[in-house]
Amino acid sequence: MSNNPRRPLSGAQFNLESGDYRAVVASVGATLRSLTHAGRNLVVPFDADQVRPAYRGANLAPWPNRLADGAYSYNGEQYQVPINEVERMTALHGLVLWNEWEPRAQTPDSVTLGAIIEPQAGYPHRLAIEVRFELSAAGLDWRITATNIGTGISAAPYGVAPHPYLVAGSGTVDTWTLELPAAKILQVTPDRLLPTELADVATHDDGYFDFQHPRTLGATEIDHAYTALSPADSGGATEVRVLAAEGTGVLMRWNARTLPWVQIHTADTASPETNRIGLAVEPMTCPPDAFNSGRDLIALGTGERHEASWVIAAL
């Protein structure tokens, strides 16, 4: 399959259908290429014969977000992984972004894809990763599991997140309303967006980043991790809602006990074609640079398995 010159640049395509929902998953990166409800985009899509832009629909593992200088220390050993965000000198979004993922199971409304993270100089662990996408009347259930299948090596540091850009309806982020039940924000350095300290959203910068009560995003620029998520029910579920002026919208729901962080990015770019056309909502197991801080970092022992999931649904 990978040697087929006629294959789209994003890889093999898997089309899913259930009721009014449609999704397309691409095999390169096990990427959510598009998701619609009754013909309306719920995420920013991209073409099949296009190299995935701006991490749209990507799976981020074994770490989400930035790793300063691509360097970290773990169990007394120093490691270096490749830097792929050169302008900020960071390693961004893990090691499986461009893997060719193999199909493991498929039905008309679901697909499961798998990949292996092989031991390497900067990450000497072997992980089996599986991603499952399933459509139903409740929306898209997107889940990722990781199993440490290595031997003779210490527990693997691990974190995970998705990278969809949500679309509420017509217009851009500026006209949409955001409801984000998070009480704290992780401040970052202005040049490299590396974490510094937590702040209360209600008081930090006069509430500039506070969306605990729904309000229009306007010109707000965000590329920050939030935490202290308020659950919507006793099971720990939390929801982020994005609404357009015409009343359409999209929500993202996950368990805040499993994913206590969420990165929000207003997709500010220099190009008018891509500037603020979607809102990145990335539930995360750990904050940026967790391989260095150790905060909420998962230690995945040999034979151990971790699962995280989230739902995207139309409003």
TrEMBL record:
SUPFAM superfamilies: Galactose mutarotase-like. InterPro entries: Aldose_1/G6P_1-epimerase, Gal_mutarotase_sf_dom, GH-type_carb-bd, YihR-like. Pfam families: Aldose_epim. One of its GO terms (biological process) is glucose metabolic process. This is Galactose mutarotase. Gene3D superfamilies: 2.70.98.10. One of its GO terms (molecular function) is aldose 1-epimerase activity.
